[in-house]
Every structure is written in C-alpha cells, then in structure tokens.
Amino acid sequence: MAELGPYLRGERERQGASLELMQQRTKIQRRYLQAIESGDYGALPGAFYARAFIRSYAEALGLDAEDVFRQYGHELPEPRQQPAEMPSRASRKQTRSRSQQGRPQQKKKKTSFLPFIFALIFLLIIGAGIWLLFQNVSSDTQTEQQSDEGTGVQFESGSPEEEGGGASEESAENSPDNNTGSGGGEDESTEEEDPADADIQLEETSSEGDNASYDVIGAETFELVMSFSGNSYVDVTDAGGEMLDMFPSQSDGDELEETYEEEEITVNVGNTNNMELTVNGREFTYPSDGTHQVITFTAVPEE
To answer: Computed from CA positions of residues 41, 44, 46, 48, in that sequence, does the dihedral angle turn out positive or negative?
Structure first.
C-alpha cells in the first residue's frame, strides 16, 4: 500500500494549504498533485517526472526531499534515463549576481596601475620644480656677486635694510588681518550638525498562532534579504493575495534580495528554522516557534 501520497496530503492539510496554492508554488498541474497524493504514479508523464514532481512537492511543503526519498523511495518507479536537471530560478539569479560582481573586479585590475602613474607624474613635477628653483638661486647668486664686485659695497647682517624688513614682517604678523584665531574658533563652533538618518521601526500589530502582522514605520518600499541555512520555501503576495514571487526550493547557502514597491506584502515561510529574514535593514525575529509562519508587513510612512 502506498504511504508516500497520504503522508504528503496529511502534511499539506496540516499546514492549511489547498491544492490550488500548491499548484501555484510548484507549477505542477492539480491533476498530477492529486495523482501523487493518491499514489497513482502511472498517471504522471513518466518515471523521472514522478520523482521530480514529488521532490518539488516536498520542498514546497518545507520538507527535506532526500529524507522523503530515503523513507518512501521504494514506492517510486525507477527512471530509464534522467535528463539533465534544469537549474532553479534562485541558482540562475545567483549566477547572474556572481557574474555582475566579477565585472567591477576586472575593471579594478585594469585601473590598478593608475596610482603609480599619478605618483610618477607627481615626482616628476616636484623634481622639475626643485631644478628650476636651483637654477634661479644660482642665477641670483651670480648677479649679487657681480653687483658687489662692481660697487665695492658690502652689507653687514645687522644693516638697517634687514632690520627694517624684520620690523615690517613682525608688524605684518601682528596685523588685525592675521589675528583670526578667535574668529576661526567661533566659526567652527557654529557648524551645523548633520541630522540623524531616519530609522525604520518594526511594530507588531496582531499575532494569532503562526500568523502575525507588523507595521514597518518609516518605510515606503520593502527591501527583503532572505538567507537560507537549509531546505525551505518562501512566497510573497500583495494585499489582494496576488503572487508577487515564489521560491519553492532553497537550500543551505542560498540568499535572496528582493524589493517590493507595495503598501502591504505577506511573506509565507515554509521552514523558519532554515531561513533568516531582514526587512529594510532590520533583522526580523519570528513571533512564534512554529516551523511554518505567515507574516504580513504594512508600510507606514513617517508623518
């Protein structure tokens, strides 16, 4: 007697999920889901697809597909030849993300020699300036020597010209234009302080069993980061119940970053033990210990 089908049907009914909802999550026709639950594997397209459909169905319920196959795999027909498995949507998205992350690194490698060129140009400019200064000093020295030889006049270090120059320098240093120390301090003390950034707040408004509602104060859109440490599924719907996103099979190490420009969203998590959720930069703490939880977030802009 088949035991896998009744086991999956019982898990679905325990979570309160209908066949229509499971059809949306798995993209498998309802008649095939009914055939799986009744153990009529001959009604499925083939042996390989029977195993693939059951894997997707188990993962959509938040179950470990490998454990399900170890326990009930003897009931399933063996495929003659398995076609290459298509990568999941999350895997394709992560591949694109890695590719996009690699491009700036390549650009950085190409431009890493620019600081050395700038440093070399800077050193050349300094060297040219020193050389010009040395040439000017040498020219001035030669001119003074020729002038002294022609007139026979020599100035001592304490001559009136030098003393007058020193007095002029002291008066210039003590002039009101240069005494800006106190004024500068007042300007620094009157600098405007930068206003603090607006802070997002999560406020629980209701909680009943595995269902809870939160107001996201200060948010205009929702920025979700979902990090997975094991098998789980998650889907996101809008205020009218329309499906915005569905991620039926996630595994350890997967991470999703999604933005929703909605006033209200509902996040349905199949296995909260294997998924960490961050909402607009705030780490979210699940309101109960239930494995399957449904959380509704409402954006409340600040007045």
So the answer is: negative
